[in-house]
Each structure stands twice: as C-alpha cells, then as structure tokens.
C-alpha cells in the first residue's frame, strides 16, 4: 500500500506552479442541445479547472467559472473584464452567500475546488487558515451542492481522489488535515443529496499532455498498482468534458477511480468508458437518471455513518478541544473514524449492487 501511495505523494507534493497547456485534442460530438446548457466550473483557475473551462468554452458550451482571483482568471481563462458579464464570478466556496449568483440557471455543476497543503521551510506541512480539507473539501463542497440543489441544477460532477480506502495514509495525515477522510465524506454527502452525481477519483495527477493514454477505470482502489499511478489533468478534464456534453444518463450515478496506461492507445470512446465504469464485479448498473440516481436510501446510510463530526474534530485538531463533544480516548476515536471511512466505502459498493437489475423507482423516497 505504501509503495502504491508513493508516486502519488510525490505528485501531490510536487509544487507544480505551471498550468498545463495541453490541448484537449479530439473534438467532442455534442449530444443534442448540450450547447444550450449552462455549466458552472468551480476552481476554474485551478490546473484541471482551467483546462476544463477552456475546453468547454471551445466547444461552445455556455460555461461559467467560479474563481477567487480575477487577475489569475484573466491569465488562465482568456477573459477580459473577468466579471459576471463574461461568466466569471469571484467568490469563496466557504462563504455560502458567494454561491448564489453564479448558480442561477445552472444545469450542471463541476466541482474542481480543493484544499492544498503548504510547507514550512523546516518541512512541516500545514494548511492555510480557512483552507483546511474540512473547510474547503467538506464544508465548501457541501455549500456548493446545497446552492446547486436550490438553483435546480440537474447534475453535479466532482473530482475527488483515489486512496479513500486507506485511512490515515501519508496523504491523509499531511498537516493533520485528513484530506482523504474529508473528501470521502464529501462524496458521501453529494451521493446523499439526491442530486444526480458523477464522482471521479483520479490517481496521481500529472501535467503530461492528454489524449495519449488509455484511461483505466476501477472502484475502491482495486486497480493493480502498476495501473494506478498517474493520470494527466488534461485527461481528467477530457473525461469531465465528455461527461458534461454527453446525455447525462451516460455519467450520472457513477463513482469511479480513474487512472491511465501510458502505453495507450488513447481513449476516444467516453460513452464506452462510462459504461465500463458502470460495470463492476461482473455486473452492470443501469444508467442513473433523474433524481433517483442519488439512490437516497443507501446514500442516507453512507451519510449518517460516515459523518462522525465529534470524532473527526478530535483527529483534525489532534487534541480534544471540546471534551464533552469528544468523549473517547484518542485510539478509540481513530478506530471509530477508520471504521466509518471503511464503512462508507463499502456502502458505496452496496449502493451500486442495489441498483442491479432494479427499477430506479424502487429506491426513490
Ligand atoms: N495532486 C494529485 O496528485 C491529486 C490526486 C488525486 C486527486 N486530486 C484532486 O484532483 C482535483 C484537481 O486537482 P488540481 O491539481 O487540478 O487542483 P488545483 O490546481 O489545486 O485547484 C484547486 C482550485 O480550488 C480553488 N480553491 C481552493 N480553495 C477555494 C475556496 N475557498 N474558494 C474557491 N476556490 C477555492 C483554487 O483557487 P485558486 O486558483 O485561487 O488557488 C484552485 O483553483 C483536486 O480535488 C485534487 O485534490 C489530486
Ligand atoms: C435544440 O433545441 C431547439 C429548441 O431550443 C430545437 O429547435 C432543436 O431542434 C433542438 N436540436 C436538437 C438536435 O434536438
Ligand atoms: C492573483 O493572481 C495574480 C496572478 O496569478 C497573482 O499575482 C496575485 O498574487 C493573486 N492575488 C492574490 C490575492 O492571491
Ligand atoms: C516547523 O516550523 C513551524 C513554523 O515555524 C513550527 O510551528 C513547527 O513547530 C516546526 N516544526 C518542527 C518539527 O520544527
């Protein structure tokens, strides 16, 4: 496991400041009228976010970007005024009020915001104040999903991360942020929201050019280590581009790992890739459509079991700063959290199994 994590850790920690300029080469065959939909990309000035934003724009999709810094947006998103008149909204996802205006009329939300660890000169990792995984990946993401639900959006697509079956991994423990734990909880809350979702969990992100590699899908970190090392941000953006522009039944209701084989050949047929992601353990899940793709019943379990706020708080802070809220000894608290994280991943598997051969209606509440 450690060996498996190593390349990602290297990739995740590499201070890659240069935005990948790789072209998203193959033209997308647009599903009918997808150009009339409104797509909001959050984290649009990010490395994957800017690739996706620019690709959607090039396809003629009515795309908006939520950014924190209009100057950075001008550099990366080729906007001039970089204001709402050009579909660029400045806001912070930890501030719910900032999300109202950008969500008005949005059909699909693509969540590409993320926390990131910083390093002191002595090598110690930390997160900036207000920038912890709990605040950004969990609370900030929940704010986005809630705002999207209120605005009547039809689908939320999320880039999370592989490795959530390994509690307390090196990455998870960086800066005491528990990033994997919070990303997993954020997945669970999206799945439990009732909003049709697409959750992509990439392996280590790299800035190599896209459209060269064969893309590989898996579930619960089951790709063999030689296949699960890296995937270019440009290919994650291409996958999202197709998920957004194909009819939503291709990608809705899916949660899968995404990695790549550098030997190729380049993946061209994304409908087939999504179909493959839907087929798991020898069985195929029907396409997720409409509100039922959230499969509320099972997601409710994931959500209720995965959220252990008191326990998470213990571990996030490393100390009990609220003895009444956190009555367990540290080991118990950690054990509990580990158990919940595993449970959430197992339940996500069961959720898929429940769909087998069943009518969506059966799980509608
Ligand atoms: N690195 C890896 O190897 C790896 C592996 C698996 C999964 N992932 C995940 O893949 C996703 C994409 O990664 P990436 O490297 O493309 O991301 P990235 O470049 O780090 O972009 C993150 C974006 O989030 C924005 N953001 C952060 N906090 C925000 C806040 N409070 N309000 C609004 N925006 C905020 C940032 O804004 P600014 O542009 O203003 O900074 C940035 O645009 C992330 O979720 C990442 O965790 C990464
Ligand atoms: C797209 O929508 C318009 C109406 O908004 C309709 O006239 C047109 O036929 C649609 N195109 C396709 C390919 O369905
Ligand atoms: C905004 O982005 C510009 C260009 O990338 C950068 O120089 C500036 O420091 C950023 N401002 C803040 C407040 O981060
Ligand atoms: C590293 O530096 C930070 C910030 O100055 C400090 O808080 C921390 O205690 C240091 N860690 C070690 C191991 O020296």
Automatic annotation (TrEMBL):
Pfam annotation, one family: NAD_binding_10
Record's protein name: NAD(P)-binding domain-containing protein
Signal peptide positions (record): 1-22
SUPFAM superfamilies the UniProt entry points to: NAD(P)-binding Rossmann-fold domains
CDD domains named in the record: SDR_a5
Superkingdom of this protein's organism: Eukaryota
Gene3D superfamilies: NAD(P)-binding Rossmann-like Domain
The UniProt record lists the keyword Signal: yes
Keywords: Signal
Domain NAD(P)-binding, chain residue ranges per copy: 43-245
GO molecular function: oxidoreductase activity
């Amino acid at each position: 496991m450690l060996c498996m994590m190593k390349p990602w850790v290297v990739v995740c920690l590499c201070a890659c400041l240069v935005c990948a300029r790789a072209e998203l080469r193959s033209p997308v065959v647009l599903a009918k009228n997808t150009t009339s939909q409104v797509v909001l990309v959050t984290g649009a000035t990010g490395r994957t976010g800017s690739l996706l934003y620019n690709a959607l724009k090039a396809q003629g999709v009515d795309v908006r970007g939520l950014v924190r810094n209009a100057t950075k947006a001008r550099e990366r998103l080729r906007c001039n005024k970089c204001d709402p008149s050009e579909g660029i909204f400045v806001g912070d996802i930890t501030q719910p009020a900032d999300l109202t205006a950008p969500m008005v009329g949005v059909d699909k939300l693509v969540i590409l915001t993320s926390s990131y660890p910083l390093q002191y000169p002595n090598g110690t990792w930390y997160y900036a104040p207000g920038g912890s995984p709990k605040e950004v990946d969990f609370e900030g993401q929940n704010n986005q999903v809630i705002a999207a639900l209120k605005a009547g959006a039809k689908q939320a697509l999320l880039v999370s991360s592989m490795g959530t079956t390994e509690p307390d991994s090196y990455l998870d423990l960086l800066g005491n942020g528990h990033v994997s734990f919070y990303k997993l909880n954020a997945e669970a809350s999206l799945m439990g929201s009732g909003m049709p979702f697409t959750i992509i969990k990439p392996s280590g992100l790299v800035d190599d050019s896209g459209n060269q590699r064969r893309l590989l899908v898996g579930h619960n970190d089951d790709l063999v280590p030689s296949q699960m090392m890296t995937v270019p941000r440009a290919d994650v953006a291409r996958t999202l581009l197709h998920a957004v522009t194909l009819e939503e039944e291709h990608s809705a209701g899916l949660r899968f790992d995404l990695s790549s084989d550098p030997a190729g050949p380049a993946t061209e047929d994304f409908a087939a890739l999504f179909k493959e992601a839907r087929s798991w353990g020898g069985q195929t899940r029907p396409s997720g459509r409409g509100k039922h793709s959230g499969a509320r019943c099972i997601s409710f379990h994931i959500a209720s079991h995965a959220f252990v706020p008191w326990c998470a708080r213990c571990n996030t802070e490393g100390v009990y700063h609220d003895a009444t809220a956190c009555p367990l000894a540290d080991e118990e608290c950690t054990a509990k959290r580990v158990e919940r994280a595993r449970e959430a991943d197992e339940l996500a598997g069961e959720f898929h199994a429940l769909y087998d051969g069943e009518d969506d209606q059966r799980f509608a509440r």
